[in-house]
Every structure is written in C-alpha cells, then in structure tokens.
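pinging the channel bc i need a second pair of eyes. not urgent but kinda urgent?? the chain im working w is below, pasted from the shared doc
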Amino acid sequence: MRKDPNVSLVYSTDIGRISPDVALEDIPTGDGIVRIHKDTKGRKGKGVSVIKGLGLNDKELKALAQKLKKQCGCGGTVKGFNIEVQTDNREQLKTLLEKLKYTVKLAGG
C-alpha cells in the first residue's frame, strides 16, 4: 500500500483524534541590552518606537506592552518578539524600562 504525502490521518481507532504537534518558537536571546529604535517605514511618515531584545515569552511581552502603552497614553502592538509603541517619545520609554531593571540603549535615528 502506497502512502500519499498529501493525505494526513485525521482519526484513528487506536488513539482517537489526531492533533498536529504544536511547534513552540524559540525566544531569541540577545546580549542583555534592550534597544529602542525609531521606525517610520510603511506608516505614511508616522513614527513608532520599536523595542527589541527583551527576551520574554509571548504572554510576558503582551503584559509589558500593555503596561507601556498605558504609561505613554498611546497605542501599540506586539509583532514577533518586538514591541511597537505608537509614540516618538523614546526617552519616556527608556525611563519606564529602566525602572523595570532593564539595561536600555536608544538606537537608530
């Protein structure tokens, strides 16, 4: 009997429903320094601050992003392992992250 690579097993009488294995993404490890970049590409000239190098998992990133957005009074999102905050005030973000015991550098223009 030939096995077709395009057909996958959905149900088996031996073990019941077959669920695909969920692959977890590896958290990128950095050098321990959080960098805040200013980015305007693809946003019609509007600036956002991108926070990179936090080394947190998805749930912790979302909680930190929510805290930063409330403190700055602006919007934002989590994309990949980066936090995008819709503000140009990188100094305020730097002081907030330093209060949370992160080593922070302002990077980019």
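so The mean pLDDT is 83. and The helical segments are 58-72, 90-99. — does that match what u expected or am i reading it wrong
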